[in-house]
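Following the same procedure, the fold was encoded as tokens, giving this record:
***
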Amino acid sequence: MRSNFLLSIFFLSFLANNLFAQKTYLLRPDRIFDGQEIHENWAVLIKNEKISSVGPAAELTFDSQNTEVIDLKGCTLLPGFIEGHSHLFLHPYNETPWDDQVLKESRSYRTARATSHAKKTLMAGFTTVRDLGTEGAEYDDFGLKQAINQGIIPGPRMIIATKALIASGSYGPKGFSADINIPQGAEEADGQDLIKAVRSQIGKGADVIKIYADYRWGVNGETRPTFSVDEIKLIVETAKSSGRPVVAHASSEEGMKRAILGGVETIEHGDGGTTEIFKMMREHGVALCPTIAAGDATSQYRGWKKGTDPEPEKIKNKRITFKSAMDARVTICTGGDVGVFSHGDNARELEMMAEYGMKPIDVLRSATSVNAKVFHQDNLGQIKPGFLADLVVVEGKPEVNISVIRSVKLVMKNGVIFKD
């Protein structure tokens, strides 16, 4: 019995030591996208968890005795992609409706699924995720983040929002008797109580505060604003005192306007954006995370046969608003609302951004250096000396055909190779 116990301890120690092993690599692809531009015949030297040097392959010097050289012919090396809008505790609604996930799936079951979702996300080349709410799974994203950081499970680095904030009576699940209290998919708070709610979420591990600035709670189920401008300002002021940003779910013109005036840093979805609203976003330095893929997925769940049926009005409108945001030179993040569709299929959002009119090179920038800047990740999103060695290698030229980002050949996070 004692020998088996010692063997188990040895094995666990072996895994931990290998996961965090300090190594030196020289990666030699055909080209490198550094977060801004494409460079042919460049290479990158990795020492421990950071990028040591990058530049023309012929000019890089390294210790050949202690460096593992990896040749990557026909490939492009990029910064690890950053997923800007994820819900690791959700899975596609055509598998299980949102209400049933919140009310019928236990938190232990949802956490077990989330560990699988985290691994799939990392293996797809997304080394960082901004996870915007556990949708009824309380603060379990903090435990998931800890497990990843400690090497217990593989997954991306996580920027977490914990429970998210909603105005009382606005969110769901709905449709139940008023005589009973139904667990909500986020935390209800209003007025001065918002101060305590924000501080509580911060104390429980939130890196960012997410609010629902509007929701489908109008008289006829239409989308209407939730928090007042003053309430949003109160949330932002409280969060900012701890150095944390506030982001807003907002899909109506008025909801977006209130969120902008309230001081949020990003608006999620933005379906109801107008020329005036996008101009206001530009002036206030508010970024848009369009979540194109989520609307595409939910439309198909409701019966739309993409490629056969005419596009629903919702899809047509999304094309218009996305172009309007680009024309207004709004900073555009990459984030698909993954969880509405399958984790590991994160590339779907990047493909759709290109399909909706963004140049592939700008899509790559959005998913790397732009997301890193907007999300305050100062050592990610670019291939530069001193930056963390979060890297992905794909076969082909993504600046020509964005879909080759699905052909992942290597994934590195913190200088550790997770997929080779």
In short: The CA atoms of residues 31 and 114 lie 34 Å apart. The longest helix spans residues 2-19. The chain has two domains: 2-79+383-419, 81-345. Confidence is low (pLDDT under 50) at residues 1-18.
